[in-house]
C-alpha cells in the first residue's frame, strides 16, 4: 500500500475506522518523471501514472513491460504514503502544466483505508479532470497488513472492500472508467495472497510484481471504443 508497514502511523485506538490513522507522507520515497519525460509521453500517446508506494516499487518494471508490449511510454508521479487526494492533486497539476494523454493510470487507494468515506469524491475529481474523451484505469485495493493485530487486519479488509465498492459505483457513472481488479484476482485463488504479497499489501518481487503488472498492462493495451 502506499505506506510501508515500517513507516505507517499506528492508530492508538484503531482510528475512526479501525485501520489506524494515516501519518505524514510528504517526506516518504517518491518517483516522479522529469518534464522532458512527461512531454515525450504526451507527444507519443503514452500513459500517465499516479500512484502510491506499490507504484513506487513496481512502476519501473511496469513501464518496461508496457513499452515492450505495445511501445507505449509512461510518465509517473508515484509517492509512498500518499492517499488518493494527493494523487489527484498531482493529476490536476500535470493537467494544468502539460495536459493529459488519452490513457491515465491511477494506482492509488490503499492509503484510503484509513478514511474510506473520502475516497468517492476523489474518484469524481479524477474523472472530471480526465473528461469524457480519455480513459482512466484504476487498480483496486487489497490491504490486510499481516504485522497488525487480528482486529486491524479485519478492519483493513473491510475498509478495502469499502474503497472498492465506491470505485465500482463510480464506474456506473463514468463509462470511460476501467477498473483493474487486483483484489478479485488475488481472491480467485487463496494461495495468491501469500505468494503475491510480501506483507499483506505490497507485491512480492518478482512473483507478485509480475502478476500485478501483467494484469495492468493487459488492461492498458486492450482495444477500446472511441470515447466522446
Automatic annotation (TrEMBL):
Annotated InterPro entries: SGNH_hydro_sf
Superkingdom field: Bacteria
Name this protein carries in UniProt: SGNH hydrolase-type esterase domain-containing protein
Amino acid at each position: 500500500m502506499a505506506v510501508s508497514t515500517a513507516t505507517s502511523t499506528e492508530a492508538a485506538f484503531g482510528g475512526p475506522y479501525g485501520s489506524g490513522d494515516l501519518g505524514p507522507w510528504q517526506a516518504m520515497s517518491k518517483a516522479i518523471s522529469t518534464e522532458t519525460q512527461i512531454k515525450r509521453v504526451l507527444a507519443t500517446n503514452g500513459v500517465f501514472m499516479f500512484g502510491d508506494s506499490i507504484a513506487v516499487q513496481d512502476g519501473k518494471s511496469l513501464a518496461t513491460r508496457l513499452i515492450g508490449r505495445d511501445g507505449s511510454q509512461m510518465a509517473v508521479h508515484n509517492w509512498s504514503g500518499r492517499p488518493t487526494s494527493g494523487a489527484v492533486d498531482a493529476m490536476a497539476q500535470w493537467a494544468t502544466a502539460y495536459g493529459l494523454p488519452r490513457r491515465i493510470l491511477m494506482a492509488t487507494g490503499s492509503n484510503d483505508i484509513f478514511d474510506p468515506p473520502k475516497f468517492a469524491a476523489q474518484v469524481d475529481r479524477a474523472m472530471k479532470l480526465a473528461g469524457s474523451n480519455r480513459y482512466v484505469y484504476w487498480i483496486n485495493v487489497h490491504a490486510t497488513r499481516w504485522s497488525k493485530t487480528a482486529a486491524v487486519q479485519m478492519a483493513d479488509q473491510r475498509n478495502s472492500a469499502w474503497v472498492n465498492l465506491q470505485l465500482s459505483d463510480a464506474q456506473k457513472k463514468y463509462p470511460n472508467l476501467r477498473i483493474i481488479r487486483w483484489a478479485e484476482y488475488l481472491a480467485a485463488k487463496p494461495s495468491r495472497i501469500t505468494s503475491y504479497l510480501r506483507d499483506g499489501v505490497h507485491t512480492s518481487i518478482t512473483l507478485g510484481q509480475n502478476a500485478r503488472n501483467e494484469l495492468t498492462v493487459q488492461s492498458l493495451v486492450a482495444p477500446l471504443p472511441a470515447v466522446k
